[in-house]
Amino acid sequence: MSSPTARPVCLSIAGSDPSGGAGIQADLKTFSALGVYGAAALAGLTVQNTQGVRDARGVDPAFVVAQVAAVVDDLPVAATKIGMLSDATTASAVAGLIRERRDAFGVIVLDPVMVATSGDRLLAEDAVEAIRADLLPLADLVTPNLPEAGVLLGVAEAEDVDGLREQALALIRAGTRAVLAKGGHLRGDALLDVFADAAGVADLTGERIATRNTHGTGCTLSSAIAACAARRGDTRETGVSRAAIEDARRYLADAIAAGAGWRLSRTPESGHGPVDHLVTLG
User: Fold this and answer.
1) Is 238 in the active site?
2) pLDDT of 49-89, one tens digit each?
3) 185 lies in a domain?
4) Domain Pyridoxamine kinase/Phosphomethylpyrimidine kinase spans what residues (predicted)?
5) Range of the structural domain that residue 268 is part of
6) What pTM does this model have?
7) Distance CA 237, CA 220 (A)
């Protein structure tokens, strides 16, 4: 006999990072650290480490969709995180399955991964329009950083907090349900993200930690939001709660602080090391 579900189920649809700091590897570690059951469908392959991305390849879109379908056929997914989808065909194929079976995916957190921390591009140019047209309307929350917000809107990157607020609101006007526009690229001692939904805009502040170990922070935050939303019981009706976002931001801050002094790489001075995803485990 099957036992009652002990933990909420979260699904990541994203690319890989063989060095473990970003992508699906980071997502699964984050899910485990936050007490949810993690499932994952591989949508892209990379050859990368803390020093940069050496190569990136897509996965056959039909095979990506088959992986996702196998998960939702079997597991009661409470929250889905969507990350790197490589190209337009894959993004459109995943969007098509979600439209057909929207109730099977729970709340959806879309991290529009375009560029790695190292600056290497991870998304084909033709995929931007597919994400904008097909996936943004399906997401309960989208989590772009400064460059990604500008690309999604087809405008220049915001240069200050006022610009970031305006771009977050512009994404809402474009049809997105809610936005967490990440301000990590802005200068200053404080870390500021902007949350926007139909009710308006709010600044979320935090401490900026001086460290090179920021590899995979975007992947980690979006998967943490999905996990926290699942744990809090967020639904399609409620959307992703601000409380879940605050929980996830605290987890990421703790993970960055715990890994700030790590020197995992053979050459830590020239790359970007990972955060401590397992900070919650002591």
Assistant:
1) no
2) 999 999 989 999 999 999 999 999 999 999 999 999 989 99
3) no
4) 17-263
5) 9-159+215-281
6) 0.95
7) 25
Distance CA 52, CA 187 (A): 23
For residue 69, give the amino acid letter. A
Q: What is the CATH number of the domain that holds 34?
A: 3.40.1190.20
Active site residue 29: no
Residue 79 token pair: 């929250």
Exposed (0-12), middle (13-18) or buried (19+): which is 112, by Cβ within 10 Å?
A: buried
Cβ 266 vs Cβ 231: under 8 Å: no
Per the structure, how many domains does the chain have? 1
Catalytic-role residue among 15, 46, 182, 228: 182
182 is a catalytic site residue = yes
Q: Which of 83, 163, 216, 273 is catalytic?
A: 216
Tell me which of 218, 259, 271, 273 is the catalytic residue: 218
> How many contiguous H segments (helices) and E segments (strands) does the chain have?
8, 9
Q: Which of 50, 143, 217, 220 is catalytic?
A: 217
Within-domain flag for 172: no
- Rg for the chain (alpha carbons), in Å? 17
100-134 pLDDT tens trace: 999 999 999 999 987 655 555 566 677 888 999 99
Rounded-to-10 torsion of CA 18, 22, 25, 27: -170
Is 10 considered catalytic here? Answer: no
Residue among 30, 80, 176, 214 flagged as catalytic: 214
Among candidate residues 44, 58, 81, 219, the one labeled active-site is 219
Residue 47 CB burial class (10 angstroms; 0-12, 13-18, ≥19)? middle
- Angle at CA 64, nearest 5°, toward 63 and 65? 90
Report yes or no on 40 lying in a domain: yes
Q: Give the CA angle between residues 185, 189, 191 to the nearest 5°.
A: 50
Contact (CB, 8 A) for 148 and 156: no
* 4 found inside a domain: no
Count other Cβ atoms within 10 Å, centred on residue 165: 20
